[in-house]
Amino acid sequence: KMAAGEAAGRYRSSMSRSKDPSGLLISVIRTLSTSDDVEDRETEKGRLEEAYEKCDRDLDELIVQHYTELTTAIRTYQSITERITNSRNKIKQVKENLLSCKMLLHCKRDELRKLWIEGIEHKHVLNLLDEIENIKQVPQKLEQCMASKHYLNATDMLVSAVDSLEGPLLQVEGLSDLRLELHSKKMNMHLVLIDELHRHLYIKSTNRVGQRNKEKGRMSSLVKDASVPLMDVTNLSTPRKFLETSQFSTPGSSSMRDISLLEIKEDTELDPEENSGVFMGILIKGLAKLKKIPETVKAIQDRLEQELKQIVKRSTTQVADNGYQRGENLSQDNQPR
Questions:
Q1: Span 290-309, pLDDT tens digits
Q2: Containing domain of residue 77, as a range?
């Protein structure tokens, strides 16, 4: 027993010196290898067995003493292990779900892109259908604008419709007849505008001059009964003076000299011919949109002599008629001179 106690103490001291179990094992092996006698080895072996038995007994006693704490620790460890295992399984499931969602999102993205493209196509088709519907109403609206002499609106409408029919709607076979009709109207539209321009440039302006002189002569005949008033041609309004002054402009409007062609706009609520200067500006703007300014200049040059002769002829007739009327009035008043 003394020997066993000494061996156990020696092993404990060895364990206290070194926490590494391998060091104790090496010490035992060295002790056994250095002894020459078998009996010494058996003795050493017995000491070791006794020491191990004592350690087992001490371990059993400690287990009995700390059974509750040990059981709680083991259960806690098992619970922690189970939680870790469950968490790993859940993380694995989450990863699989994320991969599945990623694949589904890729598929949804392709579907959404396809639907987006289809939406754009449908929107474009609807816009084309609306444009076709509006263009089908162009002939009727054009006729109304031409009848009311709103030529600028008519020109804008016609040019826009022809551009659409010969552009985005060129492949629509159902619009071929309408395309030919509107194209023909566009080719002949400038002729109507040129005629209107000549009418205002040569006829309308001179008619206003004659009307003013007629009214002036009537007023002077009422005032002066004795003699025939002489015609003062220095103050007569000629077409050139008409363009340079605002004597025939409507109240509140500026002179033609101050009006830019780009600023001229057509009011559909008013009479388009109320202001001849603005009306002629609208006609020129319409001709510019039709790209027919060269043809307009050529037509004005070709018809200039003829129109001036017509002005002289109409003026002569007006003067003769005015003189004859005055002679009749004087003869009725017994003043044959």
A1: 888 888 888 888 888 888 88
A2: 37-93
Is residue 88 situated within a structural domain? yes
Q: What is the pLDDT of residues 160-178, one digit of tens each?
A: 888 888 887 877 777 778 8
C-beta of residue 272 within 8 angstroms of C-beta of residue 151:
yes
Q: Is 285 a domain residue?
A: no
Whether 181 is in a domain gets the answer no
Cα gap 106→109, rounded to integer Å: 5
Query: Can you read off the two tokens belonging to residue 277?
Result: 């200067």
Examine residue 41 and state whether it is found in any structural domain, yes or no: yes
Structure tokens at 223: 């005032």
303 neighbors 191 (Cβ within 8 angstroms): no
Q: What's the CA gap between 74 and 66, in Å, rounded?
A: 12
254: Cβ contacts below 8 Å, ≥ 6 apart: 246
CA atoms of 287 and 160, how far apart (whole Å): 14
What's the number of domains the chain is made of?
A: 1
Burial of 15 (0-12, 13-18, 19+ CB in 10 A): middle
